[in-house]
Amino acid sequence: MACESRAQSPNFQTSVDGFSPPQEPQPSLSFWGLMLYLCLRQTLDWSDEAAFWDQLPVGFAPTVRVWNDTFTIPYHIFRHRVREIARLNARELVNVAVAQWDDIPEGAWVLPADDDDWFAPNLAAVLEHVLDGDSPILGCHWTGSFLEVPLNFCHRIRNLERQLLRTPGKWICCTNNYAMRKTEALRTACRSHVHASHWFWDHPSQVLPISNCLSLMNRTLASRTSLRMIHPEDCYPIQVPRLLSRYRQYQHLYRNSLPAPLAWCNPWIAMMHDLMQELQLR
Q1: What confidence tens digit (pLDDT) does each residue in 21-44 have?
Q2: Among 239, 217, 200, which Cα is nearest to 116's?
Q3: Buried b (16+ CB within 10 A) or exposed e, 30-63
Q4: DSSP letter for each residue of 67-120
Q5: CB burial readout 179-204, b (16+ within 10 A) else e
Q6: Mind giving me the DSSP string for 149-174?
Q7: CB neighbours (10 Å) of residue 280?
Q8: Bridge-partner residues for 139, per DSSP?
Q9: How large is the angle between the packed helices 75-91 and 61-70, nearest 10 degrees?
Q10: Phi, psi of 81 (to 5 degrees)
Q11: Is 179 helix (H, G, I), strand (E, B) or coil?
Q12: How many domains are there within the chain?
């Protein structure tokens, strides 16, 4: 998949410390083409250690302490670095602005995502090509792509089935493989890919499938899923041998570039490789 150069659009705004939302609502269709709004789901403040510990669910704290006792980069700093790589990716997106849900114009196209997700630079151009502004389409989804170390043997088998047999995943919508028009009815679909999947299943005539690979979910060593920090009430501290085993696997994950149609990911994969090489054992 070819990457496009970044458009010089006033709707794309950045600041030294990260992204600033648009100062005023912008139309979905601008002089430069279809305008998308990247809406990041709520997360912790990775850059502020005190705020991080205040916001961290109590049940997750023991696993974070195991990480900090094992590695030279504290957990919150590692997650901050991962987020910064995603921010660099977002700066390359054409006709995409970062905004909170309430600041996005009604009816505009929204990209829900986590703070470590990546998107193809030509995403807006592809969507503009396939979406008709007068159509009743309220949502679209494309091929979900994942970069991860399988959690266990069963997870590895499911991944192979999906790759080789083209078996569908559990959900239509994954973390970042869908877009939707902003309506109040779809607010929860922005926060949760599970809610989005159910809405897409219930409204097939208003959903458009797209075959392109337009995003990638980068499930890192520090992700809550990798560390089994899903629900604080039933979270157990990760055992050091398991953490070290996954660490060694992740040391290899980012060594190779991805082929087309995910070649646009390669600059960010190189940055993740450097970060994993910097992450050393105490």
Answers
A1: 333 334 444 445 789 999 999 889
A2: 217
A3: eeebbbbbbbbbeebebeeeeebeeebeebbeeb
A4: HHHHBSS-HHHHHHHHHHHHHHHHHT-TTEEE--GGGSPTT-EEEEE-TT-EE-
A5: bbbbeeebeebbeebeebbbbbeeee
A6: --SSHHHHHHHHHHHHS----S-SS-
A7: 10
A8: 180, 207
A9: 90
A10: -65, -40
A11: strand
A12: 1
The per-residue pLDDT for range 232-273, each reduced to its tens digit, is 677 788 999 999 999 999 999 999 888 888 999 999 999 999
Choose among 278, 281, 247: nearest CA to 85: 278
Residues 138, 113: Cα–Cα separation, whole Å? 17
Name the nearest CA neighbour of 80 among 13, 16, 12, 18: 18
CA dist 142 and 52 (Å) reads 34
3-state secondary structure (DSSP) of residue 146: strand
Identify whether 38 is part of a domain. Answer: no
Domain carrying residue 208: 45-278
- Asked, for residue 29, whether it belongs to a domain, the answer is no
Position 55 in a domain: yes
Radius of gyration of the chain (CA): 19
Cα–Cα dist 175/194, whole Å: 9
pTM to 2 decimals?
A: 0.83
Amino acid at 246: R
3-state secondary structure of 28: coil
Contact 137, 204 (CB under 8 A): no
> Residue 177 falls within a domain, yes or no?
yes
Q: Which H/E stretch holds residue 147?
A: strand 146-147
Cis peptide preceding 10, ω within 30 of 0: no
Name the pLDDT band for 155 (thresholds 50, 70, 90): low
pLDDT (average), residues 165-193: 87
